[in-house]
Amino acid sequence: MRAGRLDPVLVAERTIAGIEAADRIIGAFRTVRAEAALDEARAVKVRDDLATLPLAGVPVAVKDVVGIRGERVTSGSRAFPAEPATQDHEIVRRLRAAGAVLVGLTRVPELVAWPMTDSPDAITRNPWQPAYSAGGSSGGSGAAVAAGLVPVAHGTDGLGSVRFPAAMCGLVGLKAGADLLGEADWYGMSMHGSLATTVADAALLLSVLAEEPSLAEIGEPGTLRVAVSTVVPLTRAPVPRPLRSAVDRVAAVLAGAGHRIEFATPRYGIEAPLGILGRWFAGVAEDADGLNESLLQPRTRTHLRIGRAVRAAGLIRPGTRRRWVARAEEFFGSHDVLLTPTLATLPPKAARWHERSWPANAVTAIRLGPFTGLWNLAGYPAISVPAARHPSGLSLGVQLVTTPGGEARLLALAAQLERLNPWRRVP
C-alpha cells in the first residue's frame, strides 16, 4: 500500500467481508467498525505521507480495553457505561498516526480477568482447533490474527494475556517491558503488546505502539547465554511432556545456532508467586470500583470479594516486587535470556466459562499461568513464539524473557528461531 500497488479501501472491504464470513464461528470481534473503517481507509489513501506511513492502510484490531472515539469500551462487561468514548486512547492515537485502519474491537473476558475468552454473546475459539479456547484475556485479538482476519492486533498483558493467546493460537505475542509500554493497571503489572503471525509484523506493530521506529529493524542476536527451565514456580507441578519437548526442541535449535545453553531456574521462592495472585485479585477489584455489581458475572463478583479483602488487609506491598526484581537481576547477571514453556498445562476447551463457578475458572487460570505472570511483576519484556505442534493440531509455544529494554534482543532471537524452526502462519 505504501508503494501504491494495493488500494487501502479495497483491502478494508475485503477485511470486513472476511470478518463477516468467519467471525460467527471464531467469535473474535465484539464490534466491527465497517463504515468507520472504510472512511478511515479512504482518508489514508489520500494522505500526502502515505509512502512513509509504517502501517499505511493496514487493518488492525484493537483490544476492547482502550478507547476509540465514538465506540463504547466494555472490558468484556455489561456493567460498563453505555456512552461511547469521547476521545482516542494514546495507543489508538499512535495507530492512527501510523496509518492503521481500525476495523474493530476484539472480545475479552469480563474485566480481562481470565485466560479464556467468552461472554453471553459468544465464545472466542481457537482457529486451529475450534473446540479449544483462543486464550485470554487478549483472546479476541489472538483469534482474529490466527484466523487471518487481520494481519496484526493490539493486546494487553497483566499476567500473560498476550502470551496465552499467542501460545494457544500459534502466534508471535510480545509483551513489552514496563519501562516501554507499562500502565498503572493491576498495580503496574499491565503492559501493551502485539500479536502477529511473524516476528517482523509483531516488531512493526510494537514499534508503532511504543513510538520507537528502531524496534521494527530486527537485527542479529549475536551469541547469547540462554537459560532453559521447565520448573514450575512455587508448586513444581509436572509440565506435560509435549510442552517440555517443545522447550527441548527450541533449546537444541538455539544450541545449533551457537548460543550457550544452560539448564538453570531463577530463585522464584514463595513470596513473588503469591504476590502476583494478590495483585490479580486486588487489581480486578480496583477496576470494578464504581461499577454496578449486579450486572457482573457471578465468578467476577466472587473474585471482587476476595480482591477487596486483599486490599483491606494491606497485602499489596511494594517490597514484594523489589525483592523479586533483585532475584531476577541476580539470575540475569549470568544469563541473557530465559527459555520456558509459555503455558504450564495444555489449553482449555472452548466453553461458556462465564457460567461456571469461580473455583473452576480460578484453578484453570492458576494452572495455566505460572511461567508468565512473574515477569509482569518484574516489568521484564517477554515473548511467546510457536515451537511445535501437538498431535491434536494445537500450537505449542515457548516463552523467551530478558531484562528491561531488551525487546530488540527478544525480537532478534525470535526472528532467528523463525528462520531455523519455521511455523505455519494460518490454518
UniProtKB/TrEMBL annotation:
SUPFAM superfamilies: Amidase signature (AS) enzymes (SSF75304). One of its GO terms (molecular function) is catalytic activity. Residues 13-411 form the Amidase domain. InterPro entries: Amidase (IPR000120), Amidase_dom (IPR023631), AS_sf (IPR036928). Pfam families: Amidase (PF01425). Belongs to the amidase family. This is Amidase AmiB2. It comes from Amycolatopsis taiwanensis. The gene is amiB2.
